[in-house]
Amino acid sequence: MLGSMKKVWKLCLCFILLITLLSGCGKDKTSKETTLEQSQEDKTPVTFTYWSADTTAGQMDDSYKSPVSQKIKELTGVTLEKEFAIGDPREKLSFMAASGEYPDFIYALEYSNIIVDAGGFVKLDDLIEKHGPNIKKLYGDDLTRLRYSIDDPSIYFLGLPTVDEIRYEPETGFQIQYAVLKELGFPKMETLQDYEEAIKTYISKYPEIEGKPTIGLSLLADDWRIKISVTNPAVFATGGPDDGEWYYDTKSKKAQIHLTRDDEKEYFRWLNHMNDTGLLDPESFFQKYDQYQAKIAEGRVLALADAKWEYVDAEQALVSAGKPERGYGEFPLVLNDSYTYADFRPVGYTGGYGVGISTSCKDPVAAIKFLDWMCSDEGQILARWGIEGEHYDVVDGKRKFNDETFNSWSQDVDFATRTGIGIYSWPWPGYGQGAVDSNGDYYSPVYKQSIIDTYTEPEKETLAAYGAETWKDLYPSEEDFEESPYGVLWQINIPSDNEATVIMQKYDEVTAKRIPAAVLAKPEDFDALWEEYQAELKSIGIEKLEDEFNKLIQGKIDLWNKN
Fold first, then answer.
1. Is this prediction's pTM over 0.85?
2. Where are any strands of DSSP class E within 242-368?
3. At a CB cut-off of 8 Å and minimum separation 6, what does 546 contact?
4. What are the C-alpha distances in Å from 131 to residues 3, 313, 366, 432?
5. C-alpha–C-alpha distance, residues 513 and 510, integer Å
6. Which domains, from first to last, does the chain contain?
7. What is the pLDDT along the chain (563 residues), one digit of tens a residue?
8. Any bridge partners for residue 431, and if so which?
């Protein structure tokens, strides 16, 4: 999926349930044993400006007024004045780079190269060495994976994802309502053909839900979200992991734009068939995000091909309306049984982009000390659990949300905005779900049992019918795959002065036009339209883009092997 956005992930209830809930199950890992003094000793009031390229995060932010934000201010003296991107973040970042004036902290997502290439980020190596004991403790040996590139092995930002992460839940999949599955006796759900048959059968029995037409499969193509709901599922259903726009062939050790694969052509042929037979929502390529969510919240959309963080608010609205059976199970569906769904391919610690300090910051030492405090146990626990006695209590030596907090955490979409819990878990550096402190207690409130505790009754019933405790149980496990040698490809930045950057932008424009046209066409026109799409990709220089990107992949592999 679009790497940055699969993590936007994560500043609301969705963030708490997805930085952790979206991010599955194994043996709990223990964090580094060393106990350090908290580094933010100087509480002299200081205000830092912070800008985030995450266009959706601002809608969920607490404006530094929540109890957690105010506690951070009390403990560190730091006030954050936060601003979030509106529209295309590249425009604002390019303006910053051209002017040479920046906010103190920048989270630039996959566009970090714009600021790096302009010399707008402070190199953090020496600052971490002198003032970052908690940073070094948190990242440990993985600190070297924060280095930018083989040509510039500097650390510019404290990277994502979180450290010592155990994934308890899938990040991708195909969704179908619990009500549909139960009505049909919990049928086999392994291929797209199984999925299609369930949708078709249910619609034939129930052409209307609560007086409105039943919708089969609904997609979302609103701006960048086309990558999440329309194009990414094509690579997932044909055995590819989530590498953004790329597919890496482990035999040739080369990457290609995944939409140039013949395998994926057949996925879109299937979507074309779904449209032709009336099982695809005719508004899929025209609806806006709020319309999509509202439609889901009505309970009449049977199936989705999406990331949970895109529809979790609408699903929660169904629960609040007393219709939990209209929520969605998540399945690793493939085009046919020759493919293996690779959501849980292990990637190691991927580094990638994160929060950096800009060259406009007047006190980078105070800024790194603040980031170091955020990495301390005190900062980590506050960000994830809130305030002891107000949000959680320590029971038998373990942190536990009080009843009011737990109920809000699992049900209230405004939970993060109101409490501040989760807002500083992402994109700020930190320990991931499953990581434990020196007392053996979880840094995050999300672990296997806490996830199960949030399931609705229809969800538990569905999982039980498929012989599973969690949705991860239905997916191929980590042991089925070799670990990625490069992390994830969507975290590799193309230098802004590289011709490949322009080609990638053209690719996005062409794809946004060509894919909907092919899916909505008459079946007899599909092949010709697909060939026109592939020809246009070649004409804009897609092979040049692939050549340049493969050099960057090899550079990252060499950098990691060097360290």
1. no
2. 246-249, 254-257, 301-304, 328-331, 354-357
3. 254, 255, 256, 257
4. 31, 40, 9, 23
5. 5
6. 5-167+350-447 (3.40.190.10), 174-346+454-480 (3.40.190.10), 489-562 (no CATH)
7. 344 333 333 333 343 333 333 333 333 333 333 334 444 566 789 999 999 998 777 677 888 999 999 999 999 999 999 999 988 898 999 999 999 999 999 999 888 989 999 999 999 999 999 999 999 999 998 898 899 988 899 999 997 778 888 889 999 999 999 999 999 999 999 999 999 999 999 999 999 999 999 999 999 999 999 999 999 999 999 999 999 999 999 999 999 999 999 999 999 999 999 999 999 999 999 999 999 999 999 999 999 999 998 999 899 999 999 999 999 999 999 999 999 999 999 998 888 789 999 999 999 999 999 999 999 999 999 999 999 999 999 998 899 999 888 888 777 778 888 999 989 988 899 998 888 888 889 998 888 888 898 899 999 999 999 999 999 999 999 999 999 999 999 988 888 778 998 999 999 999 999 999 999 999 999 999 999 999 999 999 999 999 999 999 999 999 888 76
8. 163
Angle of helix 403-411 relative to helix 308-320, nearest 10 degrees? 120
